Amino acid sequence: MADVAGPTRVVLAGAGRFGALHARTWSEAGARIVGVVDPDARRAEALAARHGASFGSDLSEVLRPGSADAVVVASTEDTHVPLALEALRAGCHVFVEKPFAMRPADAAAVVATAEARGLTAFAGHVSRFAQPYVRLRDAVDAGRLGTLWTLRLRRDFSRAWFESFGDRVDPVWESCIHDVDLAIYLASARPVRVVAQRSAAAGRAAASVVSALVAFDSGVTATIESAWAVPDGAPGTLAGVLELDGTIAAECEVIGSRGVAKQRLVNDSLTEWTDTGATTPDLTLWPEVAGRVGGALAAEVAEALAVFRGERPPARMPHREALWSVELAAAIVESAESGAVVTIPG
Ligand SMILES: NC(=O)c1ccc[n+]([C@@H]2O[C@H](COP(=O)([O-])OP(=O)(O)OC[C@H]3O[C@@H](n4cnc5c(N)ncnc54)[C@H](O)[C@@H]3O)[C@@H](O)[C@H]2O)c1
């Protein structure tokens, strides 16, 4: 990294909803946003103006030799791999929003390109930085639950979101991928086999209902279910900072030989009732607290920044686990399409 002494210089690729939140969070963490890239020039310009950064429609326009230390890829899903490779080849660390890639070979190419240059490709799996899941992992590591037997992970998204962005790639890469990573994180093991089913209900929305049964090389199993089925009338959890109001209802259960632990993402403690409705605001993922973005996103960005600055190794989001998440999600899609048990090559 060229500028370890001063603030880390970050170029943001993708000035949409999550890109804008990333720019704010990286900036609040002490990084300097030096460039914003988006083919939608008005979006790029507006976000760049907020951060005093340059802007362009293409990464190569903004990323000059030695001009940045890291690139944050928060663009539409199918652009992540080429942008990550371009950033790494320019000598920058890269933070890649989920999905890290959508083909195992692409994920392997990103990791190989990073490692050949001594750089980090940090996969943006925000949930593993959320305190309840970190605490669950601690419980597993400390043996408080005994020998880990199985994991149950379930996630419902607002139904309305499916129409706006849920099916721009296979929904497994949009929603299931969070639990794919959480299962790997909590099991600390490599997924080796999966069988998955989609709902047989009519219409393209059926693709958003997936159930998968996963086996890990440790003998642990996991069930992963996701559906974009939360009705509009449900209490909202996300409001404000993401410009995407709605509900994420996720549940996680960890079952071991000596104990069971459960986590519910929705309605964890706070309820707000107003004349326009009831909300149970998110306090876990990216709550705005005292004017700053907090929660898992702030913790994730702080960790990525420390890794990029060479202050610690990428132990909390290792390259190999980024690869495993892509391998498992790809196997879920393959099994859901074919109905067959899919073995993931080692
Ligand atoms: N970790 C999470 O919980 C979480 C939450 C929301 C979104 N995301 C991820 O963040 C990414 C962005 O999602 P979003 O909701 O902001 O989408 P969005 O549609 O609001 O924004 C995507 C932006 O990317 C831009 N873009 C397209 N091609 C580009 C390119 N080649 N270079 C630069 N920009 C390009 C688009 O013009 C658009 O402005 C997605 O990968 C999504 O899965 C993750």
TrEMBL record:
**Residue ranges of every copy of the Gfo/Idh/MocA-like oxidoreductase N-terminal domain listed in the record:** 9-125
**Key words of the record:** NAD
Any single Pfam family the record assigns to this protein: GFO_IDH_MocA_C3
Please give the SUPFAM superfamilies that the UniProt record associates with this protein. Glyceraldehyde-3-phosphate dehydrogenase-like, C-terminal domain, NAD(P)-binding Rossmann-fold domains
Which superkingdom, per the lineage? Answer: Bacteria
Q: Which GO molecular function terms does the record list?
A: nucleotide binding
Q: Does the keyword NAD apply?
A: yes
Q: Residues in domain GFO/IDH/MocA-like oxidoreductase?
A: 133-261
- The protein's name is Putative dehydrogenase
Organism for this UniProt entry:
Salana multivorans
